[in-house]
Design brief:
histidine biosynthesis, amino-acid biosynthesis, TIM Barrel, 11 strands, isomerase, alpha/beta, 1-(5-phosphoribosyl)-5-[(5-phosphoribosylamino)methylideneamino] imidazole-4-carboxamide isomerase
């Protein structure tokens, strides 16, 4: 395997594997009742990593997937980056204790960047993935909305990236909100822009990936990995084919 990593995604709500359309809880598609079985299938297809999201915690706080995470770690051998509802240092500590290789921090990374930057130092930047959800404004700037993507945080992507790079950021996941769950292809222009600002970041493409060609394009754009969600669950993309593409 090359330095490019694939992150098949399992989003869990009420114990089931689901996907939300552009993050909207009212636009949910259910796929499976057993997330562990899906993780086993991804491991058998050649995955090395898993992207695990607690959608219940993302809305209400309080990470709920510790038993599932422990089972995935013990039964599949997958490395796992996971998050949802991270509100403070104790949440990061609890998720790490449950077995996470990396803790994903999203909204708080936008609202309280100085606090989260401190976690890069205290927990080690290799153990934290900063996840930023971006939407392009009419003037071409990239904004970072919060509160389920309904509120303008007043934070701009380029400025926040510069701050995090100064704090030692390694792992960055960025989702183009308008492409999330839409199967319209990754926003390569956005990823090239990010890497111009943060060239040392291990950037994970997220949102819109449809097929092996999209995986190859994300890799060629300079990304270090890709999150694969709806295309895998819908059967449009076979994980084994994606693994072969980046091998």
């Amino acid at each position: 395997m090359s330095g490019f990593e694939l992150y098949p995604a399992i989003d869990v709500r009420d114990g089931r594997v689901v996907r939300l359309r552009q993050g909207d809880y009212a636009q949910e598609t259910r796929y499976a009742d057993d997330p562990l079985a899906v993780a086993r299938r991804y491991a058998q297809a050649g995955a090395r990593w898993l992207h695990l999201v607690d959608l219940d915690a993302a809305r209400a706080g309080g990470y709920t997937l510790a038993p599932l995470l422990a089972a995935i770690k013990s039964e599949t051998g997958l490395r796992v980056q996971t998050g949802g509802g991270v509100r403070g240092e104790s949440d990061v500590e609890a998720i790490r204790r449950a077995g996470a290789d990396r803790v994903v921090v999203g909204s708080l990374a936008v609202r309280e960047p100085a606090r989260v930057a401190g976690w890069l130092r205290s927990f080690g930047s290799e153990h934290v993935t900063i996840a930023l959800d971006a939407r392009q404004s009419a003037d071409g700037d990239w904004l970072l909305p919060t509160a389920g993507w309904t509120q303008d945080s007043g934070v701009r992507l380029d400025a926040l990236l510069s701050d995090y790079m100064a704090a030692g950021l390694q792992h960055l996941l960025c989702t183009d909100i308008d492409r999330d769950g839409m199967l319209t292809g990754p926003n390569l222009a956005l990823y090239r822009r990010i890497l111009a600002v943060a060239p040392q970041a291990r950037l994970q493409a997220s949102g819109g990936i449809r097929d092996v060609a999209d995986v190859a394009a994300a890799r060629q754009s300079g990304c270090a990995g890709a999150v694969l969600g709806k295309a895998l669950l819908d059967g449009r993309l076979e994980l084994a084919d994606a693994v072969a593409e980046v091998a």
